[in-house]
Fold this protein.
Amino acid sequence: MIDAHNHLQDEAFQTCREDIFDFLTQQQVEKWVVNGTTEADWNDVARLAERQSSVLPFFGLHPWYLHEATVGWEDKLCNLLKEYPTSGVGEIGLDKWMRNPNLPQQERFFLKQWRIASEFQRPVTIHCLRCFGRLKELLQNSITRFGALPFLLHSYSGPAELVSTFVEMGAFFSISGYFFDPRKVDKLKVFESIPKNRLLIETDAPSMRLPVELDWFRDCEYNHPGNIAAVYKMTADRFFEGDLQELILCCRRNFDQFANTSEKVSDNSSRE
């Protein structure tokens, strides 16, 4: 199994991180994509990658924390990408759900981070809430100016009508356990439109808690990274006729394509 998006550097895991690493290893979770959100946590992400070979580090500025960026953030990001040649860029994005969103600022930072990712030929992880039409336009602009890259729309909550357009641009889409809440049935249904060869699974731990009745760690104060196994099982039951091994193999192939920028993402993405 692969957790395509989480935040294991979060202080919520400070006292139990080693136990979590041991548990994930025992559960045969092969890769954990740990996403930075602000300059302040990039070094923490890097240290996790040095301590644990299963960690794939991503470094980026999340739209919620752009106000914390310092004058030299671009150089710092470039230096980390040089130091960690398998790393990616993220979590970047657009967000109209947050309080008082500054979309012009978000777009400027998005373009700068996409440009850097293009220079280093790295995959990108994208956060987007209530802004998918504008994201489409911004991606078209970014690709025209700086080139196409594989990118992950993590916990995709956009409309089914945009899936094919995003696929043509190089998108992968991850599903989290949060979408299995009965109140999110419309969001879950969108994943019927996503090609199986563009699907990934994530926890977004410690955020995006599963419904209580489906949470394997319901006594935990946060979304435990070990819930990745629960999300795989629910996804297999919902979209793969219960064939967990087929889902695991499918996501492994997809992840190899997403994370390996030496293989160009094909535009003609046939559904399996």
